[in-house]
Specification:
The complex is a heterodimer of chains A (305) and B (44). With 305 residues, chain A is mostly helical. Chain A contains 15 helices and no strands. The N and C termini of chain A lie far apart (60 Å). The chains are: A mainly alpha (305), B mainly alpha (44). Chain A binds chain B through residues 17-24, 26, 52, 54-55, 58, 61, 90-92, 95, 97, 106, 109-110, 113, 116-117, 120-121, and chain B through 1-2, 4-6, 12, 15-16, 18-19, 22-23, 26-27, 30, 33-34, 36-38, 40-41.
């Protein structure tokens, strides 16, 4: 594994060809940014109070830019293992298109600018939370947890779960139980989502020396843990309804989707296969998207009727 | 991801120039947004 990493690093040390704008954008993990924009917007939209529409748009842009900046720092630090894994070896740094130092500089500069912009557009709490999110993802997760423990994505999931809380804080200037419920939903969703992926990409993670749960504890234990987390996730999805944040409409969507999540996890547990794990992984993305869409639609509908 | 390779030194220079201008544009964009936020907040 070490030799693979050394070989990969030799290939990627110098970017002989200048990167295109698109490749620079790829550094910021646009798919992760789109999820952050969506969940951050949900946090802002559900929060009581109002904000100037332009300031709200700028605040949302700052949240997305902060997430992208931490993604660039993550790709700078992980360039050795990214070069080994099939899923990530096409990324700009391991592909030799972007210099590692350029990625780090971009990540650090945009991190500072995004925190400054959000603080100015909203308040210090939101800016501070964004700074914490970037620090948590880039340092706590990427540098520390990812390579040292099988619980990496359990604890590291907090970084991905913070955007709705940042969005809520941007509007209200405070934190209450409602944004914590949104945080909890993404936090509990993260492990089964990434473990389903890790079951399929187990060889990649093993070759790169990343201690994902299937690598460290085996696939059977991972399937068991996925089922346990799914059983916790289903009721967690109902918490916004229990807190009277939503109508029964959202409650029904959350119950049905949570039930299907548990069903797919149980099926994976009883009849293990890569196809079943991949199906659960794809469904988990749809699950989170639909629940946050339901939260937004429910709020819009409550204003109409 | 785009894999467009420059074929000549001139093409390479153009790609680099385009990339550098994009970074400049990004920083300038942030500056404009910060200015905009200041104006909006001053208006209350």
């Amino acid at each position: 594994m070490t030799q693979q990493i050394i070989q990969a690093e030799t290939q990627l040390t110098v970017a002989e060809k200048p990167a295109t704008v698109g490749e620079f954008f790829q550094l910021m993990k646009p798919r992760v940014m789109s999820l952050v924009i969506f969940t951050g917007f949900a946090g802002m939209f559900l929060a009581p109070g109002s904000m100037h529409p332009l300031l709200a748009a700028i605040a949302l842009f700052a949240i997305a830019a902060g997430a992208g900046a931490s993604g660039a720092i993550n790709q700078w630090y992980d360039r050795d293992i990214d070069a080994v894994m099939s899923r990530t070896r096409g990324r700009p740094i391991p592909a030799g298109r972007v210099e590692p130092a350029e990625a780090l500089a971009l990540g650090i500069v945009i991190s500072f600018l995004s925190v400054l912009l959000l603080t100015m557009a909203s308040n210090l709490l939101a800016g501070g939370l964004l700074a914490f999110t970037i620090f948590f993802y880039a340092v706590i997760y990427t540098v520390w947890l990812k390579r040292s423990t099988a619980q990496n994505i359990v604890i590291g999931g907090a970084a991905g779960a913070l955007p709705p809380m940042v969005g809520w804080a941007a509007v209200t200037g405070s934190i209450s139980i409602e944004p914590i419920a949104l945080f909890a939903l993404i936090f509990v969703w993260t492990p089964p989502h990434f473990w389903a992926l890790a079951l399929v990409k187990n060889d990649d993670y093993r070759d790169a020396g990343v201690p994902m749960l299937p690598v460290v504890a085996g696939k059977a234990e991972t399937r068991k843990q996925i089922l346990i987390y799914a059983l916790v996730l289903a009721p967690t999805g109902l918490v916004p309804y229990a807190l009277a944040m939503t109508s029964i409409g959202y409650g029904i969507v959350a119950a049905v989707m949570g039930g299907y999540f548990v069903y797919l996890s149980f099926k994976l547990y009883r009849q293990p296969s890569d196809a079943a794990a991949w199906k659960l992984f794809k469904f988990s993305i749809f699950y989170l998207f639909l629940l946050f869409a339901a939260l937004i639609i429910d709020r819009v509908a409550s204003g109409l009727f | 991801m785009s894999q467009k390779d420059p074929k000549t030194g001139k093409e390479m220079q153009q790609m680099r120039r385009k990339r550098n201008l994009s970074v400049l544009g990004l920083i300038f964009g942030f500056a404009v947004l910060i200015y905009l936020v200041t104006i909006l907040r001053m208006e209350g």
